[in-house]
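Pipeline run #58 for the internal structure catalog. This entry was flagged by the ingest filter as a single-chain record with no existing model, so it goes straight to prediction. Upstream metadata was stripped on purpose; only the residue string is passed forward. Reviewer on rotation: M.T. Logging verbosity set to normal.
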Amino acid sequence: MMSISVLNPPKAAAILQQLDSGGTLEVKWNAETNTPSKITGNLSQPTNHSPEWIAYEFLKKSRTLYGLRDPEHTMKVVEVERHPDKINVHYQHLLFGTPVWEDKLVIEISNQGVIQRIEGTIHPHLEKQLFNRPMHSAITKKQAIQTAIAAAQSEIANKPIAEYYYLPTRPGVPLIYIVRLQYINSNQSTTTLIHSLTGRIIEQ
């Protein structure tokens, strides 16, 4: 019998009922994102297809559950982790081709090709929040790096690199720079989030 940790929307419940779980399905619901944070059970039939194919087929079947328009374009395989008894396919959520900060899924598949666990965080329908238009930066990567260095507590050890991300936890889903700094004579490092329009530090 399907077990769901919290009450989730009826539409999502209907989709979950369609999964081939054999009565083993268990779901933990993320109330903040309104998407599952963890699904376990026998979630697919055995198959000899590749892990990537199996995982993408599941995402296409359950895309409404995660608020994904087109999983093959918005979910990118970043790693296939192989163990003696299972394979983990790691996905990064993309918005207009740009990574979404901390939006990731891991799909665990048995050696028989059966999906047994999906875990992670996905913020749904982000395209709608941006009116289906990507954002553009008002500052350069060099300026973002200079801002992060100016806020650093000591001399840095590496050459910083700024990377684009969308930040789904702030209103408007802003486009941001992520700048990572490693300090000299220290094991400490910082990750600085900089708003790409205002150039201000959001978080460090």
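catalog note: The radius of gyration is 19 Å.
catalog note: The helical segments are 10-18, 51-61, 63-66, 71-74, 126-129, 141-150.
status: ready for reviewer M.T.
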